[in-house]
Amino acid sequence: MNGPLSVATIVVALVLAAWLLLRAALNRAPSRFDLLATAVLGALVAVLVLVAVVGLFGDHRPSDTPTFGGYLITTIAFAPTAIYLARMEPTRWGNLILGVACLVLPVLVLRLQQIASVTVA
């Protein structure tokens, strides 16, 4: 797993989570900016997952490749699913959905790093 890219993803997700949860607390519905910012986070996550998939074809593979693959699928699907659900809920709860998704993404990225660190040469 790429260290700087993982850190950037985690930082962006946490900053965005703080923003979205603040907007939910202020009783604001998801704006176009909120949805676009989450989509940008999703693109950053997609790059991270692409780098991880390319890394699977190298010499050092995770010892539990099926679990790693499951986390990859979950990680890349999380942001688009949150956007879809937030668009279905055009109230403050939509921002809460996006905010919680942004809080879960760093956990998924950290878990991917943990699994990737245990490699089989």
From TrEMBL:
Keywords: Membrane, Transmembrane, Transmembrane helix. The chain crosses the membrane at residues 6-26, 33-56, 68-86, 93-112. It comes from the Bacteria. This is Integral membrane protein. It comes from Paractinoplanes durhamensis. The lineage of its organism: Bacteria, Bacillati, Actinomycetota, Actinomycetes, Micromonosporales.
